[in-house]
Amino acid sequence: MEDRRKETRKKLMAFTLVYDSNRGGILGYLGDLTLQGAMVIGEHSLEKDSRLILAIEFPGELDGIAAQRMTIPARVARCVPEDGSHSFMIGFEFTEVSPEHAKMIQALLDRYHFRHQTDTP
User: Fold this and answer.
1) pTM of the entire predicted model
2) Rounded CA gap, 93 and 115, in Å?
3) What residues contact 96, with CB distance under 8 A and at least 6 apart?
4) Long-range pairs of 81-87 with CB within 8 A, sequence gap ≥ 24
5) Residue 91: phi, psi to the nearest 5?
6) Among the residues of the chain, which ranges form H helices?
7) Confidence of residue 121 (pLDDT cuts 50, 70, 90)
């Protein structure tokens, strides 16, 4: 499958729960995150192109952010079974990223993402 991301994924070091804000249930945990979207590891399949309001629970205090949770509209871009498990990798595209959302996402990335070294020849 072709990868059309404009931004490098950032895997998170902290266990970060993601909820379906409309239904109130847990969708899974955050696998990676960018300013454009997220990948959630969950136990249930979701229909591609369905729209949800995600609620992302912050794993701890973030510099300059008073909220403990971010709610953001998203579209399911893909949902595929994870190899060797009963989980699904659910790719979400954020559909409305406000300046406040961007600030929260950046603070979350700054505090909790794995720092990848780029492979250079």
Assistant:
1) 0.78
2) 23
3) 72, 73
4) 81/45, 82/41, 86/43, 87/28, 87/41, 87/42, 87/43
5) -90, 125
6) 99-112
7) very low
